[in-house]
């Protein structure tokens, strides 16, 4: 016989236990309600896809694709990856199901686990959860850009995330926005940045030095203390946007102002995924230390085409559920589990069947109910009811059963009342 062995969850992944799991449920429920009010509909996506899908959309030079994906070879030799994010899958599904023929903008939301092999720390896990949404809008080639419409969609998406996190009870968060230009203006800026960074190479650490070649924009993301002064003096993308991108960014700010949404422009907000263009944004929350970005998003016009679909505009975000939950807990908003409404304490051989019936009636009326399935002395039963945090104990002994009544004890103050069994649910509700 093999020897017994204890197992633990692997590094960077974790169990979410009660009572914390009820906070997760509440947050996900609020997300569903808020997104429905903005007319978003849920899409359920697979957790693994062809590796090539992520390589093409997120980009091969990004950390996510370059070193963080869980990739394996399937039995038929095809390369499969656990999803590191879901925008690529939404776009794949949009094209696969011909959703461009649907009326209006296609507005989808999703929630679920994502996988990135990052160095675990507070707020950073290898299996983490996102709540995200995407808006896809057909953009026929012969129709010119409509900046106020596009910026209006950007602002609506941002408004929706803010309504959601505020309804969860978070305060003290901050919204940062930026424009990272488009296919026309960004390459010129990236070359300028690369030339400047090359001159300053000696003042940069090894990671940033490497990025001068692979992805100079990512240098702007650097948190290395000694590089900050150098980075602050670099040319800023805002000064190098083309006319169209400048117009879009100006409209975005007007649209946020119209919605009375406070924001700050952060020219260094470039984000670590290749598909972005024009609008990028991030929301940070207090109390989280280094991993304080609870939400990231941006515009990705052209991604649908890159993945073989028709010309389409896109904008979306993903909120890190783990981090939102941490932020709520830090702020004292991590509500305890839903309390137990009633504990049915019974004694006497013929009483169990009545207790089962009473529990069923109360559950049908929407109450949470617990009961023992072996006979217990009332003292022991009531002690357990108190430890479980029950609001009421419903006491059933031979006398009650004979009279068709129950004794209801309010646990908070110990007051007791005798109630006909048929009135029990109404009594607890009152
Ligand atoms: P992202 O910035 O890579 O964007 O991730 C979005 C959010 O997911 C982050 O702001 C953070 O809260 C959370 N997150 C990321 N990695 C981890 C981790 N290892 N542990 C815990 N939380 C994490 C995207 O994923 C894009 N798909 C967002 C998007 C949708 N853009 C357009 N549409």
The counted number of beta strands is 16
Low-pLDDT parts are none
Supply the number of structural domains. Answer: 3
Return the CATH class of the largest domain: Alpha Beta
The major sheet is characterized as: 8 strands, mixed
Could you tell me the CATH topology label of the largest domain.
Answer: BirA Bifunctional Protein, domain 2
The shape is elongated
Report how far apart the termini are. 59 Å
Helix content range of the residues, please? 25-40%
Overall description:
A hairpin with a 5-residue loop joins strand 3 and strand 4. This protein has 15 helices and 16 strands. The mean pLDDT is about 95. The protein folds into 3 domains: about 260 residues, Bira Bifunctional Protein, Domain 2 (BirA Bifunctional Protein, domain 2), CATH 3.30.930; about 45 residues, no CATH class; about 90 residues, Rossmann fold, CATH 3.40.50. About 35% of the residues lie in helices and about 20% in strands. The radius of gyration is 28 Å and the shape is elongated. With about 425 residues, it is of the alpha+beta class. Bound molecules: histidyl-adenosine monophosphate (HAM). Histidyl-adenosine monophosphate (HAM) binds next to strand 6, strand 10, strand 11 and helix 11.
In short:
The chain has 430 residues and is of the alpha+beta class. It has helices at residues 20-37, 51-58, 63-68, 87-96, 147-167, 186-199, 206-214, 228-232, 243-258, 303-306, 321-330, 352-364, 378-387, 398-403, 424-429; strands spanning 41-42, 48-50, 71-73, 79-82, 106-115, 127-138, 174-179, 264-265, 277-284, 293-299, 312-320, 342-346, 369-370, 392-396, 405-410, 416-420.
């Amino acid at each position: 016989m093999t020897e017994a062995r204890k197992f633990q969850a692997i590094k960077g992944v974790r169990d979410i236990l009660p009572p914390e799991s009820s906070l997760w449920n509440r947050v996900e429920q609020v997300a569903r309600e808020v997104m429905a009010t903005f007319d978003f509909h849920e899409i359920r996506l697979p957790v693994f896809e062809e590796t090539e899908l992520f390589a093409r959309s997120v980009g091969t030079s990004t950390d996510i694709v370059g070193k963080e994906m869980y990739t394996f070879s399937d039995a038929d030799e095809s390369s499969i990856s656990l999803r590191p994010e879901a925008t690529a899958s939404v776009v794949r599904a949009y094209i696969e199901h011909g959703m461009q023929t649907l009326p209006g903008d296609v507005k989808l939301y999703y929630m679920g686990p994502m996988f990135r092999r990052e160095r675990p720390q507070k707020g950073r896990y290898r299996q983490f959860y996102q709540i995200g949404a995407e808006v896809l809008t057909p953009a026929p080639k012969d129709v010119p850009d409509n900046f106020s419409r596009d910026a209006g969609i950007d602002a609506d998406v941002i408004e929706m995330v803010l309504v959601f996190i505020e309804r969860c009870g978070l305060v003290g968060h901050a919204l940062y926005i930026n424009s990272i230009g488009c296919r026309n203006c960004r390459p010129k800026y990236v070359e300028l940045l690369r030339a400047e960074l090359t001159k300053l190479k000696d003042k940069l650490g090894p990671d940033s030095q490497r990025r001068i070649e692979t992805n100079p924009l990512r240098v702007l993301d650097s948190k290395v203390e000694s590089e900050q002064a150098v980075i602050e003096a670099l040319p800023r993308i805002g000064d190098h946007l083309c006319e169209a991108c400048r117009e879009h960014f100006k409209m975005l700010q007007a649209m946020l102002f119209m919605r009375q949404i406070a924001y700050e422009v952060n020219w260094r907000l470039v984000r670590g995924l290749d598909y972005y263009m024009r609008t990028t944004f991030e929301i940070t929350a207090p109390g989280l230390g280094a991993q304080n970005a609870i939400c990231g998003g941006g515009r990705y016009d052209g991604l649908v085409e890159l993945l073989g679909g028709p010309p389409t505009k896109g904008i979306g975000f993903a909120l890190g559920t783990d981090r939102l939950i941490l932020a709520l807990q830090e702020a004292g908003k991590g509500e305890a589990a839903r309390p137990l409404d009633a504990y049915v304490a019974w004694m006497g051989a013929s009483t169990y069947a009545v207790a089962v019936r009473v529990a069923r009636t109360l559950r049908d009326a929407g109450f949470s109910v617990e009961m023992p399935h072996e006979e217990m002395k009332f003292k022991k039963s009531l002690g357990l009811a108190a430890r479980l945090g029950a609001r009421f104990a419903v006491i059933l002994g031979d006398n009650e059963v004979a009279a068709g009544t129950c004794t209801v004890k309010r646990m908070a103050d110990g007051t007791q009342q005798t109630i006909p069994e048929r009135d029990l649910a109404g009594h607890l509700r009152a």
